[in-house]
Structures are given as structure tokens and as C-alpha cells.
Amino acid sequence: MELESLRYPIGRFESQPHYTLEEVKSSIQIISALPSKFINLLGGWGDDRLDTPYRPDGWTVRQLIHHVADSHLNAYQRFRLALTEDNPTIKPYEEARWAELADAKMAQVELSLQLMKYLHLRWTLLLNSLGEAELARTYFHPANERTIRLDEVVAHYAWHSEHHYQHAYQLAERNHW
Predict the structure, then answer these.
(1) In what residue span(s) does the DinB-like domain sit (predicted)?
(2) Second label for 160, Cα 20 to 30 Å away, from 8, 19, 120, 176?
């Protein structure tokens, strides 16, 4: 399998200038379902599987799960900032360096799966309450040097959810787990 398809199993995220409410609701459903999908997939996995990289020179599944929890926690906070401030500048973080911290390499995945479970319950409650005016609110991402609408952020995190789920799922498929 070529490296690009291992890195981007569902392709790269492609943003649109605007998203319909139906597209946003579909994205919210994908975000909402992620914790259960991971819990169902990883339920019987031991450390040997969790400590397997999903691709050559990639993160282990353990690091991947902790990354998703970290990323989605940051996204939730960014949503709240954008909903309560006018185009706030968000704080980027070094996700690759976070994945190298001790808790991302050693902690039980159950900790991040439970964090995701309850975070996603609260996040989707917030997301489902948003109308077109709120979804048009923005934040400024200094690393990307651009202002981003919340409807795009919802679509991006739906993509991010499935993107990382497929990393673990396809690893399991390739290894017949």
C-alpha cells in the first residue's frame, strides 16, 4: 500500500466556502459517533496492538487515540471562544510533540476514550444548538494565517474523526485483527 493512502485513507480534507445546514448536521453525526466507533473497534486490543504504528514512521494506535482526544478538546474550546468573542485568535499547539509526551505514549487508551465519550456528548449538544448565524462565526488560526468559519470547522472535525478512525480500522484489516 502506498504511503499517501496510509497517511490519508479517506483523502485530504478539502474545504468549501460554505456548508448547508444538512451538511453540518451530517458532520455532527460523524463527530458524535466517533467515540463509540473507537470503543467498539479497540475493545479487545492489548498493548501489542495498541503500540503498533498505523503506518511506517507513524504514530502508534495508542498515540493516535490520545491525539484525537487532545485535538477534539482543543476544537471544543475553540468553538466556545468563537461563539463568545469576535474572531478570536486561537492558540495552535504542536500536535506531533504532544504525541511524544509520556501520557500519549504510555497511558491507557481507555482514559482518552472516556474523555472523548463525554467531550463528544457535550460538544455535539453545543453543535446541535447552532444556527446559521452561529455557524458563520469565525476564529483566526495564526498557523494557517486565515480566518475560519465554524461550519468549516465542523466539516473538518468530521473529516478528522473518520480520517483517524480509518487509520486504526485499516491497520486492523491489514493485520486480520
Answers:
(1) 35-167
(2) 176
Contacts of residue 171, defined as CB under 8 A and 6 or more positions apart, other chains included, come to: 52, 54, 61, 177
What does the block give as the cell for 66?
490520545
- Per residue in 121-168, pLDDT tens? 999 999 999 999 999 999 999 999 999 999 999 999 999 999 999 999
The total number of residues shown for the chain amounts to 177
CA dist., res. 49 & res. 177, Å (int)? 9
Q: Kindly report the pTM of this predicted structure.
A: 0.96
Q: Which three cell numbers stand for residue 15?
A: 474545504
> Does residue 171 come out as left (phi exceeding 0), alpha (psi in the -120 to 50 range) or beta?
alpha
What's the CA gap between 56 and 40, in Å, rounded?
25
Taking Cα atoms as reference points, which of 40, 45, 37 lies closest to residue 61?
A: 45
C-alpha cell at 4: 499517501
